[in-house]
Amino acid sequence: MKEKVIPLTKAAYKKQFPRAMIKNGLSPEYYFKMVGLPTHPLENPECLLPAKPFWNLINLVAMDAGIDDFGAQVAQVTPWHKIESLLPLISNSKNLESLLQGFCNVATTQSTYAVFTFEQDVSESWFRFVGTPSLKSDIQMELYRVTGMIQLVQLAAGSGWSPELIELRMPENKIVQASRLISRSKIVHSKAASGFPVPNNLLQLPVAFKIPETKQPALHYEINTDFVTFIRQLIGVFVNHKDCNIDEVCRVTEIPKRSLQRRLRSHGTSFYKLLSEAKFDLAKDNLKNSDLTIAEISFQLGYSDPAHFSNAFRRWAGMSPSQFRESILKQS
Questions:
Q1: Given a cut of 70, is residue 1 above it in pLDDT?
Q2: Which of 190, 101, 86, 184 is nearest to 142 (CA)?
Q3: Which of 139, 156, 310, 313 is 20 to 30 A from 69 via CA?
């Protein structure tokens, strides 16, 4: 039986959603819990998360809170060029042409199926999303993508610029008119791809990026990583702030528990083994790079008693947490 592919996205994009929800007076924690996403902030923007919960989230908030243009708002509140994992990849763009070409080249490193094209012709060039639609009802994600695409062009053309024509995959829908940015243009529905033309006389306009000073993440993960590496990394995301269990991972990946256990066994591992490895990695990182006490690290990893954590750490490292920390200090 062919293994189910889990579409993934970089954790940096998670920050877009709480900002848009808070702007509308909504609780991000409530909606993240509804779709199974971690509710705590993620320190590493390069972490991988399943993409489908975000697709469900954007529709859920739009329908539940009655915000017709929520997808567009998510992109407008935090434009793509401010996403921590994407910005370094496009920040060397000298003009609009290199920006759009560069974006198309790296989009698939940010999210599975995020396939964009930039095709030049004599007088105009077409900027399109040609990837696989997220869901059958893709309206909010389509508003999100097209808004993000327009904002990239505006980095050179100015915030007042909008395309004369926008082609959308979705059937005709009045929700499009809720987005002030998109509704400026002539809309054509039910097309094979989403996108719009960019006049060639804009392509040599310069673009400028303000790159914030951020701490470089210690770990980078590739979107096309193998299944076991992803599950292990996902466990690490959840266990970072509370005890993690298999039901939580099954929910967010939409893989039945028996199927997940079977797939892990076929790769020579188990959920318990990956959970232990993730806890060990996090414990080592905290002992090396933080001032947290042994008791604080213990509770962060879900242990009810620091003694239980110390016993587990001895099994992993052959020494106690305090001995490990002392050895690190001696090396430095």
A1: no
A2: 190
A3: 156
